[in-house]
Amino acid sequence: MLYKAVWDDGSIIDLPVGKAVCVGRNYVAHAQELNNPLPDEPLLFMKPSSSFQSFDSEIKLREDLGEHHYEAELVILIGSVVDRDTVCYSDAVAGVGLGLDFTLRNVQTRLKSQGLPWERAKAYDGSCALTPFTPVTKHHKLRDSEYRFWINGELKQRGDTSLMINSIEELMANITQVFSLYPGDIVMTGTPAGVGALTHGDKLQLQHNNGVKYSSTVMIT
Ligand code: ZN
């Protein structure tokens, strides 16, 4: 079924489904846990709209691709064009949600060692699971966001904008020097420490700023 973004009241978001620009190594502790050096500039990669699926009752992943690792991330939904001439980035943010950036870690490690692009490990079908989005009003502080991710009731990851190497505005400024963001695009802002592999049947939960706790079950078939 084709992905459609939804607001947290369940209504469909009246924006096109765009691309995801993703940030790697935006939390010090996560870069360290994978023995990666901290980047001099934000490390960017993209996922196409074909990678999106909803974080609702079931998350579907393919077994034949290998082991899927999770990365829980804060996700920014873009509501108006942002390019290298933009002055105020927060005005262009329509909503905030959470997402899982799925990664075939073994494939990524091989591609990295061969100096090859990461898309096969990061941009495959279903590799981006997105919760509903909460609308952002003009005065919403993008700075104060905290979120948690549990597997089978155990807290696995806790993200906080105060722990990010680059803030959301800094990321948007850097991204749009190279990639304009269009309405319906999303930015995945990087994952904190605690990443790992998923198992068929895992019960996942995501919660942003003590809001609704979204739940899903992993189906790897
Ligand atoms: Zn990620």
Commentary on this structure:
The protein is mainly beta. It has a single domain (20-220), classed as Alpha-Beta Complex (Fumarylacetoacetate hydrolase, domain 2), CATH 3.90.850.10. Helices cover 12% and strands 34% of the residues. It has helices at 28-33, 105-113, 119-122, 168-175, and strands at 20-24, 43-47, 52-54, 58-61, 68-70, 72-78, 93-101, 103-104, 128-130, 134-135, 146-151, 154-160, 186-188, 196-197, 203-208, 213-220. The strands form three sheets. Strands 1, 2, 3, 6, 7, 9, 10 and 13 form an eight-stranded mixed β-sheet that branches. The protein has a five-stranded mixed β-sheet with strand order 4-16-15-11-12, with no helix packed on it. The chain has a three-stranded antiparallel β-sheet with strand order 8-5-14. A hairpin with a 4-residue loop joins strand 15 and strand 16. Bound molecules: zinc ion. Zinc ion binds at residues 22, 71, 73, 101, 188, 190-191.
